[in-house]
Write a structure and sequence with these properties.
By secondary structure, the protein is mainly β. The protein has one domain: Jelly Rolls, CATH 2.60.120.560. Helices cover 12% and strands 45% of the residues. The strands form 2 sheets. Strands 1, 3, 4, 6, 11, 12, 13, 14 and 16 form a 9-stranded antiparallel sheet that branches. The protein has a 7-stranded antiparallel sheet with strand order 2-5-15-7-8-9-10, with no helix packed on it. The chain is globular, with a radius of gyration of 17 Å.
Length: 231
């Protein structure tokens, strides 16, 4: 049984690696290629971007592969804090993947407090397409096939966070070390939407990169719909 599990993991990793081989290099996403649906993303020095508001949600308006990398400097918590829809106050940031709409998407999030860890969750609300329709319902945290610890973030430190997704297989890396690997489910794999970013009560300076997809794709620019932020 153990050998079968190891073989399955190896096959999944090989398939993901093969799919990524079809992808080109990384595209640096400038401010004007983000649709910010809540909060604000500002320009910073050295062609970087910054966020300092308690709650920020955004997605990339151009088609890319479902792979994103954040090269960031953590600056600490925001001066004011915003609670999630559940009432919980959490300091965190990370990626939106396959962000079909505010009600149906995949998250790969680096939680800072009270425990430093990467959490992957799927928000699924079939038939709902706006925040007013789904609110904070439909979340499921996904148990990884394997996972490892991430460093505890301190203000002024610089790190990287990267997510690589192909079909239902997702791998997350912190500082180029794999910290999460698993299957997010066939329903999540069918979601069709861009990559993006979210933050809660965390100040960051960052570069956001997305992998350019070289295979067949719709080659579209997604319209920016402000006010369509996810919870």
């Amino acid at each position: 049984m153990k050998n079968r599990v190891m073989l399955s993991s190896a096959v999944c990793a090989a398939l993901l690696g093969a799919s990524l081989a079809q992808s080109a290099g990384w595209l640096t996403i400038s401010r004007d290629r983000f649709c910010v649906t809540e909060g604000a993303i500002e320009k910073a020095a050295n062609n970087r971007l910054s966020v300092s508001v308690p709650k920020m949600r955004a997605y990339v308006t151009e088609w890319t592969a479902q792979s994103a990398e954040l090269r960031f400097t953590y600056l600490g918590g925001t001066s004011k804090e915003s609670a999630l829809g559940s009432g919980t106050i959490r300091r965190q940031f990370g990626f939106k993947l396959r962000a079909q709409d505010p009600c149906n998407l995949v998250y790969a999030i680096w939680r800072i407090d009270p425990e430093s860890k990467v959490v992957v969750s799927v928000k699924s609300n079939p038939g709902a397409h706006t925040s007013a329709e789904c609110g904070n319902r439909g979340y499921e945290n996904i148990k990884p096939r394997k996972a490892s610890a991430v460093p505890r973030l301190l203000p002024g430190q610089s790190h990287t966070l990267r997510a690589e997704m192909r079909d239902a297989e997702l791998r997350v890396f912190a500082d180029n070390h794999e910290v999460w690997e698993g299957d997010v489910g066939s329903d999540a794999a069918k979601l069709d939407g861009p990559v993006g970013i979210r933050s809660d009560n965390a100040r960051l300076e960052f570069e956001f990169l997305a992998r350019e997809w070289k295979g067949p794709h719709p080659d579209y620019v997604k319209a920016c719909k402000t006010g369509s932020a996810d919870e």
